[in-house]
Structure formats: structure tokens, C-alpha cells
Amino acid sequence: MAMSKVNKVLAWVALMALLCTATIIAAGIWFASAQAGECARLERWRVVILGVVALVVALAGFVGAYWNNRFLLRFYLLVMGALIAVLIALLVFTSVVTHASGEYKVLGRGYHEYRLDGFSTWMRGYVSDDPARWEGIMSCLADSDTCKKLARQAGFVTADQFYQSSLTPLQSGCCKPPPECGFGYVSPTVWTNPTSAPVQDCGLWSNDPAQLCYQCDSCRAALLATLRSQWRKVKVALIVVTAALFILYVVAWTAYRNVSGKPIFGRYYKW
């Protein structure tokens, strides 16, 4: 079956959209798998689901262009436009809620510390509003290799070496007490407790490997810092894909209006 020039353009656009939606799915899968390693479940599979829906819609557009099916082409233009709007809204929302960071630097330390009140209200709600959710995260962290890896370094890491080491946010916030406590270093996950505890987290610290600082606000903040970093990486890919989908959508809409015989911006486009 011979395809018109306009239908070829529509098919090409839908094919490029298919590649873009595959990128959304790949980014979502990476985001979900990364969170699994960090014991989080924040919007874990929604990006993947959005990508799969966009993939099906783009496939419908390709089939509609190839077989000159006006219903499928209209479906593609209508739903893809809505999906692009959803993507833009998602990017705006996540940019707002992940803008604030609770990260801060302590003099003489090679790693960062984290404060819970430095994050947005929406992100703080994820680790504070549902005690059962945090209980599950704590249990996962205790079973994970996050702090066990530090504990295995106890025999050959001095205090100065530890203070200059490069820790992940979770290792910094969950595997050791906050610096404000003034605890004495024994090993990466064992610290001596002074007589007074100036902040609440100090009283929550335990040298028990199953507890450590998992109940601390610093641990909650460290988890949010990890999620924020992961989401900002995914966001870069989504911004590029959303921009590409928008451009492809404009081309597809223009081509469809041309093949339907209706004027675009007051005149007809010749192919």
C-alpha cells in the first residue's frame, strides 16, 4: 500500500515518539530499581506506567498513519497531547518539591550532613506522616548492606580517616550519630555517648547494629536526600523527552490538519 507524503511524516513522527516513550520507561525502571536498593517506595512505578501508556498511544499513532486510520490518528493526537500536559505538570511539581535541600557541610568532614527541616513539606510528609511506612524502611535498612559495609571497616579506619571518607547520604545520616551530639568515635558504627544529648537524635542513637540511627530525623533526611538526587537525574531525561515529544506533537498535528484538508494558521500547507 502506497503511503502519502503526509502519512509518511505522521508515521515517522509516531516512530520517533515510540523511541521517546521507551526512554521514559527506561528512566522509570532505573528510578524504581534505584529506590529498591535504598528501601524507598516514593512514586516508584508511576513513571514506568506513564511511559507504557505513552508507548501504546505512540504505537496507535504509527498504525493509524501507516494504514491511514483517521480514528487512531485522532486518538493519538488527543491522548498524546494530554500525556504531554501530564508530563509537564509532573516536571513542574517535582521541581518545586525537590528544590529545597537539607544538605549541609561540617568543617573537617569529607561527607555531608542532612537536616529534615531543609526539605519541602511534601517530601517531609513521606517519611513522617505514616509511622508504618517508616517502620518498613527501617527494617529494610537494617537488613541492607548500607551500614554493614561501614561496620566491616572497623578494624582499619581511624577517626581521621573516617571523617575524611566519602559517605553516601544514608551512611552519613543513618549509620552514625549527628555531629551535634559530640559522640566519641570508636568505629564507623560504634560511638561513645557523652553525658548530655543536645538534640533529640542523640538520644535515639544506639550501637546496636539493628538500631543505629534509623529512628533519627537525620536518617529520614538522608533518605530524602537520596530520593531527591535520584529524581533530579530522572528529571533531566524527562525534560529532554518531553521537549522532543512536544516538538513531534506539533509536527504531527500540523501534518494531520493538512491531510484532513483544513487550514493551518490561515492557509494550507503543501507537501
From TrEMBL:
It is a multi-pass membrane protein. One of its GO terms (cellular component) is membrane. The keyword Nucleotidyltransferase does not apply. It comes from the Eukaryota. The keyword Aminoacyl-tRNA synthetase does not apply. The chain crosses the membrane at residues 12-33, 45-67, 73-97, 236-256. Keywords: Membrane, Transmembrane, Transmembrane helix. Pfam families: Tetraspanin. GO terms for biological process: auxin-activated signaling pathway. It is found in: Membrane. InterPro entries: TET_plant, Tetraspanin/Peripherin. Belongs to the tetraspanin (TM4SF) family. This is Tetraspanin-2. It comes from Lolium multiflorum.
